[in-house]
Amino acid sequence: MTATKINGSPPFSPPSGPTQRLFQEPPAKSKFLAIGSKWLIGGVFAVTLFLAGAARAVINPALQPFHLLERYKTALVGTVASIDEKNRIVTLAITRVTQGDFADTKVTLTASEETMAGLLSLGTGQTVVAFVGNKRKADGLLFYGSGIWNHGRLPDAAKPNEWTWTSVEQGNNELAGIFNGAADRLAELLTDVTERRDYFPFQPYIKFQDDLVLGTFDQTARGVALADLDGDGKLDAIATSQAGVRVWLQREGLKFEDATAALGLAQAKASSVAVADVDCDGHLALLLDGVLWSGSEMGFVRTDRVPAIGEVITATLADMNGDGWPDVLAATDKGLRVYLNPAKPGAPFTDATAQLGLDREICGAGLPGLVAAGDWDGRTALFYSAGKGLLLVADAKGVFQPRQHDVDMDLRPAADGQLTGGAAFAPLWQRDAMALLVPRHAGFSLLMEYKDKLVDVIGSTNETSEPSDRQLWTLAEDLNADGEVDIYTASGSEGSSDVYHMHRGYGSYMRPMKYSRAFPGEGYATGSWGVATGDVDGDGALDLLLGCTDGTVRLVMNNSLSLRKDVDEVSAIRYLLKLVHTKVLRVEVKGPRGLVGAGVTLADAQGRVVALRRMGANSAGGSWSGGPLVLAVREPGRHMLTVRYSDGLTVRREVDTATVSSITVSREDTSANKGAAPGKE
């Protein structure tokens, strides 16, 4: 089977045959028993790759992949070439030797009657990672495939390519705590370990301060936003509710001043907010539940430029036709609505719902849901949480078509009618490719493209199997400045906690609140509807603004960088030491045209993508995150920064992330490889 790239990622090779179903989330745990139990798939029983991830969310700090490289002489990566069930023999084609010497290109692995179930969990083309020759026991063998750790031995030292399968370690939490995701990602991790580029922390390096309450509504706070409204270079805060809208301008010393009335918003009410320069004239405008408020030096004035939108759930700004001008995208009780920007200041927006194909039942017309805008294989895409979940991708004519899939995302509203499924398009599986994270009440799906089919890899992401009981929508950003994009999920329900999952790398996530009080304030536990992120104090770590279900609006300042100070580099844990040397690059993208929906990529000197972002993302819950992008680089040095504006204009800038902490990119910077001087630009 030929390895295939998913959304531009390194090769990812799921098995063929009966275990093809591995790439769907497994049924409920109650349907899975021990390794000997039967799970019928086309008449053959198998053990799912993702059973390990879903059932054993555990991290073993005393035994991690780099520890295995210290204990074993040789580490190999192989692919299942053939399976002889009658004779219980698996043939592996060795594709990579990551440590030690191993001359053979093929290995035979013979199973016993007791390990036959493990053999049947494998499929041709699947990756297997093996550690050979324990330094204490020369014939020792430990290998990983199908999400299960297994023991074996080399019965004849003269025949190192003939292995015996002695035990299947299903249910062994000590081994599962090493790694319990996709074997392809473990293979990638081992390569990075040998090249000293690995980052796979086994404890959470994240810390927020206690909440700063900016104000309180008489009703649930809804969408919130962080944006520089007065042009002083500092992020200001906006919060919405059906009791009113509030704006706090940031002053010196991290003080916030209520400027709602002064800005002309005293009578405004809304449940969602978006902020952008819709006229490309240098003045920010507010979109409040689909109503456009034009901005000037004097404040904001309500307009009727956008036709009245009935039964709005959320409304946001997105470039829906690739012309660089922000359009209005609304989710309503009866489907999606789109109003195109006329590309002429002051002119009315026009209804383009039908023109874009979004008035059809196959695109969710007539159904309520939450909508997220993003990028799918370089094409404009939407995810609408109606029905079984609709991934809508623009075709060559700009008309949105539903992406067919068989993934059961279980997007049923809660008993009280609360919606779910506010999704995020972000590099959540690999750093160089967008994936689609879809929350549901008490669960997630993480979708990727494989051979023209959507597959769900959530079961191999470790502690994402520990969600909140209510999950409205998810914000995806690097909240601990370690170079990996994390997920923060708003519960949207009073009494149900938000939940934060820290990306450890290689598609594995940790739930930090299990191990420390990463969020000591009340907002996290109270539950939020609105969530926005931005570097409020300019320290290089992203802060959070929460619109909580109890009506409070809370600013939660990030203190994660303090964990990297005064570290003894001689005795420091290897991954903490990585963070000590991590640099943060603030990227300010200037327009005004093409900002909303612009893509930003940072690649190292070898062409490896180390950061990927989309501006104007994280709006599915009616919130808006503004300000410069903050990109953490674990291996600073010469990098290429690429900005692709939403109308297609592309700007590239060389930057030395070891010496440059801030860079500004504008549409006029069209000369390729333009360098950035050391220090702040």
Query: Which segments are poorly predicted (pLDDT under 50) over 5 or more consecutive residues?
Result: 1-56, 672-681
Question: How many β-strand stretches?
Answer: 46
The fraction of residues assigned to DSSP E strands is 35-45%
- Count of DSSP H/I helices: 7
Radius of gyration: 25 Å
Question: How is this structure best described in words?
Answer:
The protein is mostly beta strands and 681 residues long. Helix content is 7%, strand content 38%. The protein has seven helices and 46 strands. The strands form eleven sheets. A seven-stranded mixed β-barrel has the order 3-4-5-9-8-7-6. It is globular and about 85 Å long.
What descriptors fit this protein?
single chain; about 675 residues; mainly beta; 46 strands; globular; disordered N terminus
Helices and strands, with pairings:
Layout: E1 40-41, E2 44-45, H1 49-55, H2 65-71, E3 72-84, E4 89-99, E5 106-111, H3 116-120, E6 127-134, E7 140-145, E8 148-153, E9 162-168, H4 173-176, H5 183-194, E10 212-216, E11 224-227, E12 236-241, E13 244-251, E14 255-258, E15 273-276, E16 285-288, E17 291-296, E18 299-302, E19 312-318, E20 327-332, E21 335-340, E22 350-351, E23 371-376, E24 379-384, E25 390-394, E26 400-402, E27 424-430, E28 433-440, E29 443-450, E30 453-456, E31 473-477, E32 486-490, E33 499-505, E34 508-510, H6 522-526, E35 528-534, E36 543-548, E37 552-556, H7 574-580, E38 583-589, E39 599-604, E40 609-614, E41 624-625, E42 629-633, E43 638-644, E44 650-656, E45 662-665, E46 674-675
Parallel strand pairs: 5-9, 11-41, 38-45, 44-46
Antiparallel strand pairs: 1-2, 3-4, 3-6, 4-5, 6-7, 7-8, 8-9, 10-37, 11-12, 12-13, 13-14, 15-16, 16-17, 17-18, 19-20, 20-21, 21-22, 23-24, 24-25, 25-26, 27-28, 28-29, 29-30, 31-32, 32-33, 33-34, 35-36, 36-37, 38-42, 39-40, 39-43, 43-44
